[in-house]
Amino acid sequence: AAPPETSSTESQLVSDxxxxxxxxxxxxxxxxxxxxxxxxxxxxxxxDPQRVDVQLRLAQLQSGALAPASSQPSDTxxxxxxxxxxxxxxxxxxxxxxxxxxxxRDPSS
Length: 109
Description:
Blueprint: H1 8-15, H2 22-30, H3 34-47, H4 52-63, H5 80-105
């Protein structure tokens, strides 16, 4: 199902560079406005290219790895084993992100 039409206020929030935040991105993703979330993230990246969190979220959205919350099964809809595997994957992804962040900050590498 297509997301509902955006109000002029929502459109203005996405087009106003100063109001692009990760909270706005989360709201847009949860409502299915993935294209608008990508635009907001691109603007945030342009304003501050060093923000690793913005780069990571943008890569996730562009690769399709970050789907709207409504399309992902809830924890009660998946088995304990699947939940455990998903959590292990999230931990690995977070660890990889931390290591990437450390290596970006370490002038000796």
